[in-house]
Structures are given as structure tokens and as C-alpha cells.
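in:
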């Protein structure tokens, strides 16, 4: 009879469009920017990182360092530190091509530094061995090219 969600019947509008007028259409609502210290929902983090929500839940099971707060009904709220760690995990997995096991090992290394603060020396980078990254990449390319040629030759032999 008196539906508080009905358009125009509530003292509070359902949403606002860009002009601030009552729109009544949930899809047209505008979001207020959250501060950097605000907690984020799984939906917000998934959108921010460009990964599906199930991937974040999977990462929680694989990386014990990611511990979102869980409220009633199992709703997850990610702290800014969790979001930073997830961003680093995503970069290591997707951009750097590391495996989950490799990222787990990296995050477990002694020193307990946050993922954002991991120095290049801690991951066995060229800087740790005294070589520039260009030299390191050229050496890797030469090794891979030699391996490819050896495999090609091996496949040609009867």
C-alpha cells in the first residue's frame, strides 16, 4: 500500500543523477569518491583491479596475507593494505608472469616486508646480481634462442 521505495513516495530519493535531481533509477546513481583510507567491498576491489570477484576469493585462499574483514552474511571489506597487496599480487601474476607458488614464496620471504615494499634484490632481479636489466634480458634471449635451435635440430634428426 505505502511502498517507501516507490518513486516520489519516499522522503529520500532512490538515487541522484549528475544534476542532483531525483532520478528514481538505480542505474543512474553517481558514486561519491571514497577516501584512500576507506574500506572497499569485493565488488569495488574487483572493478579496481580488473579481475572477477571469484578470483579475489581464490587469492584469499592462496595468500594468507590477504585478510579482509568479514561482516554479517560473509560480506568482505578490504582494508587499504589489503587492496595494495592484491594490486601487487595481480601485477606479479599477470604483468610479471609469476606463478601462484612463486608469489607465495616471495611474500613469505624473511623480513616480513609488505608486498609494495619488496626491493628488487629480494626477488633475485638483475640488480641483485650486479647486471643491468638490459644485459640480463639479452642474456636470457640468447639462452632461449640457443635452446630453440637445439630443439629444432633434435626434431629434425630421424
Amino acid at each position: 500500500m505505502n511502498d517507501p521505495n516507490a518513486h516520489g513516495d519516499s522522503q529520500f530519493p532512490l538515487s541522484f543523477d549528475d544534476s542532483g535531481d531525483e532520478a528514481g533509477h538505480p542505474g543512474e546513481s553517481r558514486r561519491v569518491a571514497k577516501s584512500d583510507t576507506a574500506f572497499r567491498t569485493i565488488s569495488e576491489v574487483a572493478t579496481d583491479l580488473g579481475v572477477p570477484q571469484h578470483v579475489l576469493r581464490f587469492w584469499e585462499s592462496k595468500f594468507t596475507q590477504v585478510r579482509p574483514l568479514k561482516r554479517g552474511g560473509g560480506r568482505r571489506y578490504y582494508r587499504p593494505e589489503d587492496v595494495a597487496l592484491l594490486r601487487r599480487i595481480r601485477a606479479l601474476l599477470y604483468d610479471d608472469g609469476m606463478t601462484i607458488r612463486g608469489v607465495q614464496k616471495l611474500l613469505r620471504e624473511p623480513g616480513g616486508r609488505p608486498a609494495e615494499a619488496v626491493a628488487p634484490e629480494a626477488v633475485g632481479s638483475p640488480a641483485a646480481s650486479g647486471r643491468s636489466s638490459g644485459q640480463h634480458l639479452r642474456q636470457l634471449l640468447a639462452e632461449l634462442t640457443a635452446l630453440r635451435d637445439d630443439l629444432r635440430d633434435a626434431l629434425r634428426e630421424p
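note: The two ends are 85 Å apart (CA to CA).
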